[in-house]
Amino acid sequence: MDLQSTYQHAIKFAAAKHAAINQTIPGTQLPYVVHLSNVAMEILTAHAAEPIADINFTIQLALLHDTLEDTDVTFDELQQHFGDRVAAGVAALTKNKELPKTDRMADSLARIKNSPKEVWVVKLADRITNLQEPPKHWDKPKKEAYLKEAELILTELKGANAYLEQRLHQKLTDYQAYI
Fold first, then answer.
1. Catalytic residue set
2. Which domain range does residue 75 map to?
3. How many distinct structural domains can be found in the chain?
4. Where are the beta strands (DSSP E) in 21-167?
5. Which of 6, 68, 71, 125 is deepest in the core (most CB within 10 A)?
């Protein structure tokens, strides 16, 4: 399937699933699909700067990365629509809600690091996109913790994609203004 068709198939699926629960970007009224398309845009821009081995796979991951975590989509449903590899990649990007909140990111990063590099770059792109102005209700400790978590992501996923690593480094610097 060509990249445009892959993109359309994945974004339509993800947009419908996130819209079904009226999910918006936290702190805004924007539909969640804006976040997903921003992650995909980061991937496409990175690919132009430093080619990603399997861009079709990576775009699917970018657009679907929150479906298991945030919607009623099941692993089996992802497998049926997108295949084993995409379902496994999305699962690696999904935090395990059965773990204590303090352990979720470390667990997720361990699973990501045992996955193809395309999964790594989606995590980098996701955090780049999330390092926008934080929701108004976040206090200083929450913002500091989010920044520290982003620093951990950058450290743990070093070697995934130089372009995205530089972008995340710059976003970390820029995010200091919110603390």
1. 69-70
2. 3-178
3. 1
4. none
5. 125
